[in-house]
Design a protein that fits this description.
296 residues; mainly alpha; 0% strand; globular
Length: 296
């Protein structure tokens, strides 16, 4: 590949795990990932139990709980062996990890409606603080589809077409920060497009479909440019870069189709009530939510 593109050498691995001290350091991320995943799962299930106790009639959807646990399972697959270590030195592993962390796991976690669950389980004062935060300017800005699109898809151009990817991969901390960005940006975009949680700045469905279409087109263009070696700046063998581009192209399409399906599934068209008649003999219309027409 040209123009500072893929090279024939693999990424230098910062440490090889030789020696007992380095072996302990190598095992530390695995322990932290397991502890974080288990803590998140336990916290969510405890909140579900509390929500069901507070309002047994309303309860909590088992599908949402399954979505949250499924999202955590996808994160574990992406970060734990064998995929986690492979992503440090194999671009195909990196791209598979990127898809799981940045697209599939965020969709599952967002569909679990964690903010709604928090609002139903927190004390009234805490729920008011969360609501105030959601209506604040920073939250409204971050959860707008345009900003979420720029943070999730727009950053990919800077990552793969500049030395940023090689710089991040040369340090373990850089790799973890990159994964954290993938997860946060993926959750923001999934929430902005099809999240069930409240989002005051979320536009209507047609506008969100446009942003999703832009994301699909951008992912396809980046993957195709990566496959062809156009301006790619990735220090990895050419075959790994091309196979990684294929993973991004096809797995990204599937993830975005799932996101589109989630958007359509949560679409509730607004009902327009008829204007009540004001002439002689007119009967006032019922509530708009009933969808009924005024009697003649």
């Amino acid at each position: 590949m040209d123009g500072g593109g893929a090279h024939d050498g693999t990424h230098p691995v910062p440490h090889d795990g030789s020696g007992s001290g380095e072996g302990v350091l190598d095992a530390l991320p695995t322990v932290l990932v397991l502890a974080t995943v288990l803590a998140a799962a336990g916290g969510y299930l405890l909140a579900v139990r509390r929500a069901r106790r507070r309002n047994p009639a309303q309860g909590w959807s088992g599908w949402r709980s399954a979505a949250f646990l499924g999202g955590l399972a996808l994160l574990a697959v992406a970060l734990l062996p064998p995929l986690g270590p492979a992503a440090h030195h194999d671009f195909r592993g990196h791209m598979a990890q990127h898809m799981l962390i940045g697209m599939y796991a965020p969709l599952a976690l967002v569909l679990a409606a964690p903010v709604t669950l928090a609002l139903r389980t927190l004390p009234p004062a805490g729920a008011r603080r969360v609501t105030t935060l959601l209506h604040g300017r920073p939250a409204r800005l971050l959860t707008h589809p345009a900003v979420a699109l720029a943070l999730s898809t727009g950053v990919l151009g800077a990552l793969y077409f500049t030395p940023l990817y090689d710089t991040a991969m040369s340090h373990p901390a850089g790799h973890w920060l990159m994964n954290a960005h993938f997860l946060a940006a993926g959750c923001l975009f999934a929430h902005a497009v099809a999240g069930p949680d409240p989002a005051p700045a979320r536009p209507g469905v047609p506008v969100r479909l446009v942003y999703l279409g832009v994301a699909i087109a951008a992912h396809a263009l980046i993957a195709q440019a990566m496959y062809g070696g156009f301006l790619v700046h990735i220090h990895a063998p050419v075959d790994q870069v091309q196979q990684g581009a294929e993973i991004m192209y096809y797995a990204g399409d599937i993830a975005e189709l799932l996101l589109a399906a989630a958007l359509v599934a949560t679409w509730r068209p607004e009902r327009r009530s008829r204007r009540p008649r004001t002439g002689r003999g007119a009967v006032p219309a019922g509530p708009a939510s009933s969808g009924g027409a005024p009697a003649g």
